[in-house]
Amino acid sequence: MMREYYLNTIILGIFIIIPIWAFIMDEPFTITLMTRAAIFALAAVGLNIALGLGGLVSLGHATFFGIGGYSMGILAYHAQTFTPLMEWPILVSGSKLMPLIWINAVIMSAVAGLLIGILSLRTSGVYFIMITLAFGQMFFFFSISWSAYGGEDGLSIYIRNSFPGLNTLVPIHYYTLCITLLCAVLWINSRLIKSPFGIALNAARQVPARVETVGLNPVRLKLAAFIMSGTVTGLAGALFADLNRFVSPTMFSWQTSGEIMVFVIIGGVGRLFGPVVGALVFVALEHWLGGLSDFWHIYLGLLLLGIVLFGRGGLIGMICGEARLHE
Amino acid sequence: MTFVLLAEQILNGIQFGIMLFLMAAGLTLIFGVMGLINLAHGSLYMIGAFSAAAVAGMTGSFILALLAALTASAAAGALVELLVIRRLYNKDHLDQVLATFALILIFSEGTRWIFGSFPLFLDIPDPLSGPVTIPGGIQYPLYRLVLIGAGLFISIGLGFMITKTRIGIQIRAGENDREMIAALGINISGLYTLIFSLGAALAGLAGALVGAIQSVQVGMGEPVLILAFVVIVIGGIGSIKGALIGALLVGLTDTLGSIFLPELLKLVTDPSTATSIGSSLSSMAIYILMGAILIWRPTGLFGIKP
Question: Distance from A276 to chain B by nearest Cα, in Å?
Answer without folding.
Answer: 18
